[in-house]
Protein: SDR family NAD(P)-dependent oxidoreductase
Organism: Bosea caraganae
Amino acid sequence: MRLNGKTALITGAGSGYGAEMARRFRAEGARVACVDLNLDAARQVAAEAGNGAAIAVQCDVADGPSVAAMVKEVDAQFGGFDVLINNAAITQHPSRTGRTPEAEVDRLFAINVKSLYHMAAHALPVLRRVGGGSVINIASVTALRPRPGMTWYNATKAAVISITQSMAGEFAPDRIRVNAIAPAVGRTPMFSEMFKDEAEADAAHDRLVTTIPLGRLCRPTDIAAAAVYLSSDEAEYVTGIIMPIDGGRLVG
Ligand SMILES: NC(=O)c1ccc[n+]([C@@H]2O[C@H](COP(=O)([O-])OP(=O)(O)OC[C@H]3O[C@@H](n4cnc5c(N)ncnc54)[C@H](O)[C@@H]3O)[C@@H](O)[C@H]2O)c1
């Protein structure tokens, strides 16, 4: 019960890393707002995590009015929140840097980067009002050690790191800590979206494992454990860090 008394808003909570963070946060005693574009998926996670202390709210994080309405609803239902996890994102289909369709580049930046602007505009005032809290932005180890074919996705995650560091200094006087987690590749639904079929995904999995010193891909439980720590009072002196959860990929 390391998060007793806390209330967390987690975006992209309908799947993968976000869904596991929602489950783990409930298990640690937090109330959780599961926010996702896919309302059915968010509802399912909220129902599992449950007991009335988890709710599901639909939102497109790339759309300002949608974020404003979602924050209002979570605030109304829970009377504020003190943990914000900006986790929702999309990946890109591997392509050469100048061949990625322009519309795909725009969409990557709208969902992965501009969403943080909308969240800063609408959710940060709530954290300030309740007297502070913890913001966790989910970046990626690919921002620090890129793989080819993923230039624009990697760039969005590098922006997430820069935004995290800028915000940490700005919001420290408000007692709002801002940190990032940089996960290694994991076999979530996002992973499958990068490949044309499961056979291609299996082959990529085997190849990627050999690039990770600890010998396996990242699991949602690895990310949830880091997020619990960064949201808990144990991390009260931690802000502005980029925490790689990467099985040693950066040093391998
Ligand atoms: N899986 C990986 O290999 C990996 C590696 C490094 C970092 N990450 C990062 O971890 C985070 C979670 O990734 P995942 O693998 O769990 O992904 P996922 O695709 O399994 O889940 C992402 C969730 O975000 C939601 N979402 C997408 N667009 C949205 C929007 N516009 N508004 C609201 N919700 C939206 C989706 O509906 C989905 O439920 C992302 O930030 C991702 O970039 C993932």
In short: The beta strands are 7-11, 31-36, 54-58, 83-86, 133-138, 176-183, 242-245. DSSP finds nine helices and seven strands in the chain. Residues 11-12, 14-18, 36-38, 41, 59-62, 87-90, 111, 138, 140, 183, 185-186, 188-191 surround nicotinamide-adenine-dinucleotide (CB under 6 Å). The first helix runs from residue 16 to 27.
